[in-house]
């Protein structure tokens, strides 16, 4: 098997200008791009995590790209893919890899963040996608673990991130954990919504939502189960975050002492930032 290369977008002048402007306004901001491992087959994944030379070469290429592009680290989206394709059997190799990569990032003064799937399924049963022991094993070399507590899987409109499910995900990880583990966990917070129709569902951002909201016959309601606002139209239901729903989920983060990872910041209404 040959080394699996990576594909990246070339840096554009407008990106460089944007990064410079952001840092000028706030020198504490860290700019960390999301790194995906798409189109990898289960065989590729199994061979990759067992081949130290390939992992090190990939890590070296990634570090060089981040350094050359003046980034402050990266958000790595690899954990869930490995756990799903190997049914969790490669978790020890995966933990070893993530700790090794995190250590290398830290030597370069870069942040190392993992994005992972939720700890619980829709019935609040443990998925083993992320456990307290995983969190503990990763805490030394991983700055933050962002748990994707959104995209709630359901056959009927039930909200993007039902409140009780979000809280139970956090609670299940931290209930019996040492107090210092909470600072490594980030609750996933959606700034986008979903429109449910008879044909299925599709993601919806702020401009699409506002257009629907302005239509006179559409009615904004409160889903007491999901604790989310839902816009009811003649042929669809649209779950989209509001100040109330966002604040309630931020309060979960405050209650358990965890951080928040927003997906995706540019898809939300401008005034959502008032709550941060």
TrEMBL record:
This is Chitinase domain-containing protein 1. InterPro entries: Chitinase_insertion_sf, GH, Glyco_hydro18_cat. GO terms for cellular component: endomembrane system. Pfam families: Glyco_hydro_18. One of its GO terms (molecular function) is oligosaccharide binding. The lineage of its organism: Eukaryota, Metazoa, Ecdysozoa, Nematoda, Chromadorea. Belongs to the glycosyl hydrolase 18 family. SUPFAM superfamilies: (Trans)glycosidases. One of its GO terms (biological process) is carbohydrate metabolic process. It comes from Angiostrongylus costaricensis. Residues 1-276 form the GH18 domain.
């Amino acid at each position: 098997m040959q080394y699996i290369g990576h594909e990246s977008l070339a840096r554009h002048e407008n990106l460089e200008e944007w990064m410079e402007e952001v840092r000028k306004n706030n020198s504490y901001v860290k700019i960390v791009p999301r790194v995906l491992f798409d189109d990898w087959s289960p065989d590729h994944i199994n061979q990759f995590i067992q081949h130290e030379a390939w992992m090190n070469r990939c890590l070296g290429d990634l570090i060089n790209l981040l350094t050359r592009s003046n980034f402050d680290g990266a958000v790595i989206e690899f954990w869930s893919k490995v756990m799903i394709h190997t049914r969790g059997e490669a978790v020890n190799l995966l933990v070893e890899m993530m700790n090794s990569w995190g250590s290398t990032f830290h030597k370069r003064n870069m942040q190392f963040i993992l994005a992972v799937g939720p700890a619980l399924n829709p019935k609040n049963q443990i998925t083993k996608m992320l456990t307290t022991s995983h969190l503990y094993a990763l805490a030394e070399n991983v700055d933050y673990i962002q748990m994707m507590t959104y995209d709630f899987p359901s056959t009927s409109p039930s909200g993007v991130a039902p409140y009780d499910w979000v809280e139970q995900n956090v609670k299940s990880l931290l209930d019996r954990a040492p107090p210092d583990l909470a600072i490594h966990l980030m609750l996933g917070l959606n700034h986008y919504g979903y429109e449910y129709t008879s044909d299925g569902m599709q993601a919806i951002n702020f401009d699409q939502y506002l257009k629907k909201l302005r239509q006179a016959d559409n009615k904004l309601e409160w889903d007491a189960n999901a604790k989310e606002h839902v816009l009811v139209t003649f042929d669809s239901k649209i779950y989209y975050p509001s100040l109330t729903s966002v604040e309630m989920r931020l309060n979960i983060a405050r209650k358990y002492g965890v951080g928040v990872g927003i997906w995706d910041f540019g898809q939300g209404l401008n005034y959502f930032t008032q709550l941060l």
